[in-house]
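Protocol step 4 of 6.
Sequence for Folate receptor 2 (Mustela putorius furo) entered exactly as in the expression construct, tag removed. Do not edit the line below.
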Amino acid sequence: GQKDMVWRLIPLLLLLAWTASMCSARARTDLLNVCMDAKHHKAKPGPEDKLHGQCTPWKEKACCSVSTSQELHKDTSLLYNFTWEHCGKMKPDCKRHFIQDNCLYECSPNLGPWIREVNQSWRKERFLHVPLCKEDCQQWWEDCRTSYTCKSNWQRGWNWTSGINKCPAGTTCRTFETYFPTPAALCEGLWSKSYQASNYSRGSGRCIQMWFDPAQGNPNEEVARFYAMAMSAGALPRVVEPLLLSLALMLQFGLLG
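Step 5 output, structure tokens:
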């Protein structure tokens, strides 16, 4: 009686375990080809033939509109009324990295694995700890070390009374190298840990490239796939364990009873 009932339940439990694991894997595919819920992002990525300047690598599948891509090339864009030149002129070599960083932020559909919910007035989601390729981080730092800034975290703490970001009272304009002594300090500190300085190199398939040649395809698609798969593998045990445990208990009570 009881024993038969337990054995009949086994296929059901296995089906449940399988369904649960599929659901978690299904949720993970939603991490691919997505736009985050933020101020200027489109709801879904799509082609944008006329993307401007440094944003053109994303034109096949973009989360940004043409007008967004144009705005973020300006010294003080209307997107956020934010200026990089809060300590005087920024060198063009340095500035191009900030434009590229903005294009990645606004346009990339490959940051799903790192999107997190936030409660900010201007966005519901952000990305966190995106593994930025070693060379991209290094070059950014190299090209900017002699430009000037007054803060090591640009996400918060500015004086906004004039309508654009100004250095807060008590801060001094010094070289980037003073505020960001290493490439990692720059990439990780600048936007409150949006990026993580990766030890992986460009082309490894394990780190996100800020700079890439779209003629060779978008290398970040493979990277997003890898991390999405890794996350779904990590999610499986959490789903299956309680089911297997209940199966074990039922067997034990059933067979002992």
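Step 6, annotate. The two ends are 10 Å apart (CA to CA).
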